[in-house]
Amino acid sequence: MPTAEYVVEVKDVWKKYIIGKVEYPALNGVSLSVNKGEFIAIMGPSGSGKTTLLNIAGALDRPTKGEAFIDGTPISRMSDDMLAELRNKKIGFVFQTFNLINYMSAIENVELPMIVAGVPYKQRRERALQLLEKFLPRSSINKKPLELSGGEQQRVAIARALANNPSIVIADEPTGNLDSKSAGVVMDAFKELRDEGKTVIMATHNPENTRYCDKIVKMKDGKIIEVIVK
Prior knowledge:
This protein is of the alpha/beta class. The protein has 6 helices and 10 strands, in the order βββαββαβαααβαβββ. It has helices at 50-57, 80-90, 106-116, 121-135, 150-161, 180-195; strands at residues 6-19, 22-35, 39-43, 65-70, 73-74, 91-95, 168-172, 199-203, 215-220, 223-229. A hairpin with a 2-residue loop joins strand 9 (215-220) and strand 10.
């Protein structure tokens, strides 16, 4: 049974991908418990299983064996529609490549998750404006992504991830495409989210990013090899 106090719990999770007749193991018996309000960094070389673990922790993928729980609910027993609703309400995602829609303005990008959630126009526009004002100068909120710097685009992506006020933020190499100054601004934003009580789970290659975190989870060959609590 899951422990109720954990926001995310992964228990003895295995994940294998089958391409043709070849089986590729991505996770090999991984267990991880995440408390409410923790900021966790998952580190390891490429192919260590970081992104797969994030995808399962964020209910984007299901384990081959074992179980993952979000707020005590096992994701393997949920339908695809239930998982989509869970993600939209409880989880915000930030990716290395920003994943913004280039023909839409910054504020329209932030509104997208709220459109999916059925939030009325006036309410979602006010919410998007409120979020963006934390991350961008007002003069930039109607600019399209390609008119913004990489750091500004990532800050728009963070605002979008927060649109539906999720309790969990999943970030996969969020500073991977940024210069050091922009990366620092983005990491400060994640620290503020943690300080506001949100749970942040981040995969990163950059040891510098871990100074912001409460816990460092090191992975290799699909396994957790070390957990450092700061």
